[in-house]
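// run 5 | inverse folding | seed 20
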């Protein structure tokens, strides 16, 4: 199934239904499908063929959605470029993907002009703004729309999505039409003309959460309201104005929403489901959100990876309701630190260093198996698959499963700290630090040590007006953890370095420690 049919099929059933809202522009299924068809025909006339690569460098927009579906309709491969990437990363992506057509937003015209790969190797560069440096994208539209999407195989690549590249060059994840079909059709029902609500989309469309949202919502008939980028004030206004029922945020977004001065006065009564993910959620933030949002809001923790076509596990609304006996509330509070249980089409196990499956409660690497795992990474010599025997994918996330089947994260495999032969999960130490009333945020990394191999170092952001000493925080952890797990070094910082989705860049923290230890005393 061509992913363009996520739009085409519901359009054939309910052409007049409104499906997309952006910057005051409103599209029915029929209007959006006509735009997509004319763009697909125009791209074909410009020389784009099945298997060619079409890329977009811009923030979220109606044009972005049209380019995604038009690329699929033409049988091309779509590459959503990360507009926050550095110039060398963008140069690498454009050259590595062999981009044939590139659509550029107004604010990134100068960026593209500075990229030799874009200037010299991309045959078709167009501007998404009428006053851009290149041909305006609407001038590419054909007079008539092509009626049918290009026939594709399930194994044909639909999206080539580059990972964040925080530790090395970005990896090129090959996601197929079959991967997206398996994800969308198994998780949402086809539109049937009944009200499915309104989804507010503010996650960047270069991220897997944003990309899958414009497919699943189009397929299900849930109206999409797009924001160019996240802004807490605009998010609150959109929820109230458009009667938003469903939204997805990352932890930093949720905190900014809660902190916004208009939060308390905004009518959020339409909101039914607020999903979060993309990075670990600080416990105090989700606890505060549960108390601050209307009781009608159902919270959902969705954990996934680009390599698995989005969500793997879900912690549902019932697990976020802190009700019942004291024992039940305590259990639910513990589960709030989990990522929930695997979806029906996902198998998950915890694997030890020797490849053996570990029992409940033991920390190891999380391995998953699902019909929507990626085709592989695009390497210079072809497709490179990280799959182990019997189709299992090592996620490089460490964690454990409790006796009730809930999955808990312990940090990335590369972030695990080994002190004197003992494994220390940074997430466990961070969780204790988060529980201190003076701590706003915390990140824990390992520091090389001649005697112990590694020592535990913590970077801490304090709440306004709080002034605990490093010794106080260390003692707080000692009383709640095995002694060897407590931090031995505490650095107070104004903020933690993060990527756009709120993941802490621990590599940068380790580099700071290395630089400070090597500096002249």
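// decoded
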């Amino acid at each position: 199934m061509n992913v363009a049919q996520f739009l085409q099929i519901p359009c054939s059933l309910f052409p007049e239904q409104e499906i997309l809202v952006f910057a005051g522009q409103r599209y029915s299924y029929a209007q959006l499908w006509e735009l997509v068809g004319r763009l697909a025909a125009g791209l074909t006339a410009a020389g784009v063929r099945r298997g060619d690569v079409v890329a977009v460098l811009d923030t979220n927009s109606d044009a972005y959605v049209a380019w995604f579906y038009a690329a699929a309709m033409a049988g091309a491969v779509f590459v959503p470029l990360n507009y926050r990437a550095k110039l060398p990363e963008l140069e690498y992506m454009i050259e590595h993907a062999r981009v044939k057509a590139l659509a550029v937003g107004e604010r990134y015209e100068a960026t593209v002009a500075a990229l030799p790969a874009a200037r010299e190797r991309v045959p078709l560069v167009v501007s998404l703004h009428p006053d851009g440096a290149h041909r305006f994208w609407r001038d590419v539209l054909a007079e008539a729309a092509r009626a049918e999407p290009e026939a594709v195989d399930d194994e044909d690549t639909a999206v080539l999505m580059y990972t964040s590249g925080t530790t090395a060059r970005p990896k090129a994840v090959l996601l197929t039409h079959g991967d997206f079909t398996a994800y969308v059709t198994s998780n949402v029902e086809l539109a049937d003309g009944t009200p499915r609500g309104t989804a507010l989309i503010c996650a960047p469309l270069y991220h897997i959460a944003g990309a899958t949202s414009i497919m699943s919502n189009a397929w299900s008939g849930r109206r999409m309201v797009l924001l160019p980028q996240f802004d807490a004030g605009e998010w609150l206004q959109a929820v109230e104005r458009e009667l938003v029922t469903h939204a997805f945020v990352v932890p930093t977004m949720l905190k900014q929403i809660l902190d916004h001065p208009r939060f308390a006065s905004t009518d959020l009564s339409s909101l039914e489901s607020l999903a979060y993910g993309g990075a670990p959620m600080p416990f105090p933030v989700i606890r505060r959100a549960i108390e601050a949002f209307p009781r009608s809001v159902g919270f959902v923790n969705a954990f996934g990876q680009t390599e698995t076509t989005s969500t793997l596990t879900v912690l549902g609304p019932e697990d976020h309701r802190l009700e019942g006996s004291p024992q039940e509330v305590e259990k639910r509070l513990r589960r709030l630190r989990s990522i929930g249980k695997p979806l029906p089409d996902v198998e998950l196990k915890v694997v030890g260093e020797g490849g053996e499956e570990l029992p409940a409660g033991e920390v190891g690497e999380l391995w998953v198996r699902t019909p929507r795992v990626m085709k592989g990474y695009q390497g210079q010599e072809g497709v490179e698959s990280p799959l182990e025997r019997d189709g299992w994918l090592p996620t490089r996330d460490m964690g454990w499963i409790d006796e009730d089947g809930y999955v808990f994260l312990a940090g990335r495999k590369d972030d695990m700290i080994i002190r004197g032969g003992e494994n220390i999960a940074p997430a466990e130490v961070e969780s204790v630090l988060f529980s201190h009333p003076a701590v706003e945020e915390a990140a824990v990394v390992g520091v090389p040590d001649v005697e112990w191999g590694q020592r535990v170092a913590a970077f801490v952001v304090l709440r306004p007006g709080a002034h605990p000493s490093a010794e106080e925080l260390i003692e707080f952890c000692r009383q709640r953890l095995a002694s060897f797990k407590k931090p031995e070094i505490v650095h107070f910082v104004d903020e933690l370095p993060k990527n756009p989705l709120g993941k802490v860049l621990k590599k940068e923290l380790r580099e700071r420690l290395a630089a400070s230890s090597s500096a002249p005393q």
